[in-house]
């Protein structure tokens, strides 16, 4: 048949059978979506309130042409379904939902609008923004125009789902399964990381294949990270407003599908090849020992508010999929700042999210998820709840509960800031870590009491709930905000390129330009900026918890002061692989820090410090000291003007065990931090004939280790705005050729402890 409407007309008389050159069967309500086998394709889509749903098929050779329109005659458990025998992969499809147009009561059915299947595994192309993709006449002068039904067909302009063959040879893929406490996360962008890489073939730059290129994987391995956290790769939409401005949604926090990998990141086209390419990328990263964590956006979709387009869920069952204002259901609850919030209090909407998560784990082999604006997902009828339906369901799921779960623990609604309040199994982006570390190193009057909590794993936030230091994802920068280099090059945001007159983006950045706004030729300022970057990187990798490094911070990437580069798909956001000598130096320093952290379990403990003496050694596992070399006093902790802190980490007192139950011990380390703008004399604890400290890190230089020893109780000057790390030095004879200690030094350390506390 060539007229798509004919099959629907004929089905009024004969529901199933042969209709010209296509056959229609009843099919099954599960699995949801388009499920391809070599015998045919089953289609199933949920809609409780629709009175009818049509399946629209578009030719593989010409995706713009609607060839068949088939009425889905069966509804089982609120799922509409049918089966098309012998339908080959590669065909495009969408749905049209019939029903009541009553926006005031949350009903927005408009069969003239083609709708994306929420379960589609691949999507072809991007939306062409015309007035036809809106369910109401967008140019109508009435302020209530969203209540008026538009009758134009959106199919020529809307993107379509693709029927794909999901078979793939994983070649025995084994997930790296790194313990959370030893994980080091690298937040990256699929396109941004590889768009300028000289070794990646041009057609693969900015794609999944580019990220899996041997040169890129070698770089990540050499850097030392263990997991790549990819910014959104669920197929997303470039907003109409941005497209009209000649920009695009670079970050991708505007999801259209929760199952389909973003088509533009595929080097092999958008007809399903992007799915295979994504799987190949994951397989290659796993072979290199690198985990893949997805930044997922389940809190909202690209359909916006009542003035937004109709692309999928809004037209299929608006009242179930979205949170609506109780007494004004034409409007949307907006806890996300994007116009809508997904309604996870509805079991069928929750099912979409859970099915999506399981799909990415079981079919795509990813290792975990970072949940954007996770507080919006955890909301009950209003408040964010630890026992919300979403969190409770996650914990009961035998698949999802076993992967890495990371929350961005806030949204834009009231009561949305929930740092420290997610339950066991979850880790969180620790916004308090970011803010306090920035404030301390800027020299603010914040004291050192909170800093001590952040350095030691944020037990004040996580321990009382039965969680461990790995609950804290420590970060000093992320994709949202200044890069590390810009944090010390700009006092103010410079977002003019975004086309909003610099109104967008956060104004409170806790940044410091070191004396000049933007680039400068002043060698003293540039040296200070380098040192400040080394200070924050050192703090990050020497803190308890899980460090997250933002793409490019390891070499000093700049966004020219733009702290909201969500729409900058260009050199402002991309990773620059051509480095100056200064950038190579910072990269080498970062590599050294990461290796130092990995080599010493004291920096990635499984459990919190307890600060008390241990029964077997009578030694504490952590001790805080002041510049005099003595234990911090109550006055030291209380003063907002204290900007210098010493921390001794006692690896001899660790009560931790490896996977075989063997006791883990480590060396004794002394970490000194000075945020004063002047140098500070610091008395290293110990006695000269007994204690020698080996300097491993000094942020006044870029060498790790520094190859320098310091005797205790001899003059040591801690430089202005600097950090240094020492290790208690033992005789070489005390170590095996592999560097393991042969003899216990508990007696020596006990004497050191006593001196500090005298």
Identify the notable features of this structure and list them briefly.
758 residues; six-stranded antiparallel beta sheet; alpha+beta; 33 strands
Quick overview:
The chain is of the alpha+beta class. The chain is 22% helix and 19% strand. The strands form nine sheets. It has an eight-stranded parallel β-barrel. The chain has a six-stranded antiparallel β-sheet with strand order 24-25-28-33-30-31, with helices on one face. It has a five-stranded antiparallel β-sheet with strand order 6-5-9-13-12.
The helix fraction, in percent, is 10-25%
Class inferred from helices and paired strands: alpha+beta
Report on the biggest sheet.
Answer: 8 strands, parallel, barrel
Work out the helix count: 18
Shape: elongated
Which band does the percent of strand residues land in? 15-25%
Give me the count of strands.
33
Backbone CA Rg: 29 Å
User: Strand arrangement, largest sheet?
Assistant: 14-15-16-19-20-21-22-23
The CA-CA distance between the termini, in Å, is: 93 Å
Residue stretches low in confidence (pLDDT < 50, at least 5 long) are 731-735
| Overall pLDDT confidence | 92
What's the quaternary structure here? single chain
Pfam families: Alpha-amylase, CBM_48
Family: Belongs to the glycosyl hydrolase 13 family.
Protein name: Glycogen debranching protein GlgX
Organism: Neolewinella lacunae
Q: How would you characterize this protein structure?
A:
This is Glycogen debranching protein GlgX. The chain has 758 residues and is α+β, with helices and mostly antiparallel strands. The strands form 9 sheets. It has an 8-stranded parallel barrel. Strand 7 and strand 8 form a beta hairpin. The longest helix is centred in the C-terminal third of the chain and has 19 residues, at 523-541. It is elongated and about 100 Å long. Residues 731-735 have low confidence and may be disordered.
């Amino acid at each position: 048949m060539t007229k798509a409407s004919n099959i629907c007309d004929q089905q009024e008389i004969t529901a199933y059978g042969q209709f010209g050159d296509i056959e229609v069967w009843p099919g099954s309500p599960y699995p949801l979506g388009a499920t391809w086998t070599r015998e045919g394709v089953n289609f199933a889509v949920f809609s409780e309130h629709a009175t009818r749903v049509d399946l629209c098929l578009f030719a593989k050779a010409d995706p713009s042409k609607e060839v068949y329109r088939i009425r889905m005659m069966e509804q089982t458990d609120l799922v509409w379904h049918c089966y098309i025998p012998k339908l080959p992969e590669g065909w495009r499809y969408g749905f049209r939902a019939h029903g009541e147009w009553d926006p005031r009561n949350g009903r927005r059915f408009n069969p003239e609008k083609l709708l994306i299947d929420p379960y589609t595994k691949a999507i072809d192309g991007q939306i062409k923004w015309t007035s036809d993709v809106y369910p109401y006449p967008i140019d109508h002068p009435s302020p209530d125009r969203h209540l008026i039904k538009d009758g134009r067909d959106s199919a020529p302009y809307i993107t379509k789902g693709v029927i794909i063959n999901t078979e793939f040879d994983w070649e025995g893929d084994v997930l790296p399964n790194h313990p959370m406490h030893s994980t080091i996360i690298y937040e990256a962008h699929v396109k941004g990381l590889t768009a300028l890489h000289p070794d990646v073939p041009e057609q693969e730059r900015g794609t999944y294949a580019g990220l899996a290129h041997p040169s890129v994987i070698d770089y990540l391995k050499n850097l030392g990270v263990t997991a790549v956290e990819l910014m959104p790769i669920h197929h997303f939409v470039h907003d109409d407003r941005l497209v009209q401005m000649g920009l695009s949604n670079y970050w991708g926090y505007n999801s259209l599908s929760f199952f389909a990998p973003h088509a533009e990141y595929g080097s092999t086209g958008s007809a399903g090849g992007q799915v295979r390419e994504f799987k190949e990328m994951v397989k290659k990263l796993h072979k290199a020992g690198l985990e893949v964590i997805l930044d997922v956006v389940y809190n909202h979709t690209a359909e916006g508010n009542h003035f937004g387009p109709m692309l999928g869920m809004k037209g299929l069952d608006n009242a179930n999929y979205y949170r609506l204002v109780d007494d004004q259901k034409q409007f949307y609850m907006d806890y996300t700042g994007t116009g809508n919030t997904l309604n996870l209090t509805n079991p069928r909407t929750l099912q979409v999210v859970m099915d999506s998560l399981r799909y990415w784990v079981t079919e795509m082999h990813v290792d975990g998820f970072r949940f954007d604006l996770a507080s919006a997902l955890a909301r009950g009828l209003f408040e964010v709840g630890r026992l919300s339906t979403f969190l409770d369901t996650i914990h009961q799921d035998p698949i999802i509960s076993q992967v890495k779960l990371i929350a961005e623990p806030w949204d834009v609604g009231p009561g949305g800031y929930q740092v420290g309040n997610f339950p066991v199994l979850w880790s969180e982006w620790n916004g308090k870590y970011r803010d306090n570390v920035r404030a301390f190193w800027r020299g603010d009057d914040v004291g050192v009491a909170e800093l001590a909590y952040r350095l030691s794993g944020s037990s004040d936030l996580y321990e009382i709930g039965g969680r461990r230091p790995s609950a804290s994802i420590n970060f000093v920068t992320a994709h949202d905000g200044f890069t590390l280099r810009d944090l010390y090059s700009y006092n103010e945001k410079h977002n003019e390129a975004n086309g909003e007159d610099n109104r967008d983006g956060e104004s409170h950045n806790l940044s410091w330009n070191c004396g000049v706004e933007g680039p400068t030729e002043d060698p003293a300022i540039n040296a200070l900026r380098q040192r400040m970057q080394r200070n924050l990187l050192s703090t990050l990798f020497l803190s308890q918890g899980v460090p997250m490094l933002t793409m490019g911070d390891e070499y000093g990437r700049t966004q020219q002061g733009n702290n909201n580069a969500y729409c900058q798909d260009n050199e402002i956001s991309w990773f620059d692989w051509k480095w100056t000598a200064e950038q190579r130096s910072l990269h080498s320093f970062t590599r050294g820090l990461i290796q130092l952290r990995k080599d010493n379990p004291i920096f990635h403990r499984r459990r919190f410090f307890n600060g008390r003496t241990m029964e077997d050694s009578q030694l504490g596992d952590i001790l805080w000291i002041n510049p005099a070399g003595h234990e911090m006093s109550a006055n030291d902790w209380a003063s907002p003007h204290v900007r210098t802190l010493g921390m001794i980490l006692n690896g001899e007192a660790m009560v931790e065990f490896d996977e075989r139950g063997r006791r883990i011990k480590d060396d004794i380390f002394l970490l000194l931090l000075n945020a004063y703008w002047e140098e500070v004399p610091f008395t290293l604890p110990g006695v000269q004939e007994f204690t020698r400290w080996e300097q491993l890190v000094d942020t006044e230089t870029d060498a790790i280790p520094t190859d320098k020893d310091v005797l205790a109780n001899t003059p040591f000057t801690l430089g202005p705005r600097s950090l240094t790390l020492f290790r208690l030095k033992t005789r070489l004879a005390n170590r095996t050729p592999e560097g393991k200690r042969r003899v216990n030094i508990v007696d020596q350390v006990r004497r050191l402890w006593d001196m500090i506390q005298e």
